[in-house]
Amino acid sequence: MSACLFCRIAAHEVPAQIVAETPELLAFTDINPQAPTHVLIIPKRHLGGVPDLTDEHAGLLAHVMRVATHVAQASGIAASGFRLVVNSGPDAGQSVAHVHWHLLGGRRMAWPPG
Ligand code: AMP
Ligand code: ZN
C-alpha cells in the first residue's frame, strides 16, 4: 500500500468527494476549502511536484486544463472565473508531495496571492 495520501485517494483506498475521473486524472473536493468551489486535480500516477514534470507529460498537462474547464463548467464558475494554482515546494506551502492543481472559484479573489 502506498504511503502517499493522494496515491491512495487515486486508488480509491481513501475516500474523497470525486467530481471527475478519467483514466489519467482524478478531481475531488478539497477537505479544507478556501473558496465556494475548491477542487484538487491530480494525476493518478505519482509525480511529486512541478520539477518532476517533463516534455513527456505534455499530454497530461493539456488534459489537466481540459478537466479543469469541465469541472469549472459543471460547477457553474466557468463564466464568473476561476483560478488554477500549483504550490511547489516549501515556500509555496506545498503540503502533499503528489503534484496537484487547485481549482478555486465562486468568489472574487485577490492578487497577488498571499
Ligand atoms: P498543498 O498545500 O498545495 O499541498 O495542497 C494540499 C491540499 O490537500 C490542501 O488544500 C488540503 O486541504 C488538501 N487535502 C489534504 N488531505 C486531503 C484529503 N484527504 N482529501 C481532500 N483534500 C485534502
Ligand atoms: Zn502519490
Explain what the structure shows.
- The structure is a single chain.
- A hairpin with a 7-residue loop joins strand 2 and strand 3 (37-43).
- The model has no long low-confidence stretch (mean pLDDT 97).
- Helices cover 20% and strands 22% of the residues.
- The chain has one domain: 2-Layer Sandwich (HIT family, subunit A), CATH 3.30.428.
- The protein has 114 residues and is α+β, with helices and mostly antiparallel strands.
- 24% of the residues are buried.
- Strands 1-2-3-5-4 form a five-stranded antiparallel sheet, with helices on one face.
- The protein is globular, with a radius of gyration of 14 Å.
Summary, kept brief:
The protein is of the alpha+beta class and 114 residues long.
**Strand tally:** 5
Q: Ligands bound here? A: adenosine monophosphate, zinc ion
Looking at the structure, the CATH topology is HIT family, subunit A
* % residues in beta strands: 15-25%
Helix share of residues? Answer: 10-25%
Q: Termini distance?
A: 36 Å
Give the overall silhouette: globular
User: How many DSSP helices?
Assistant: 2
In total, the number of domains comes to 1
| Structural class designation | alpha+beta
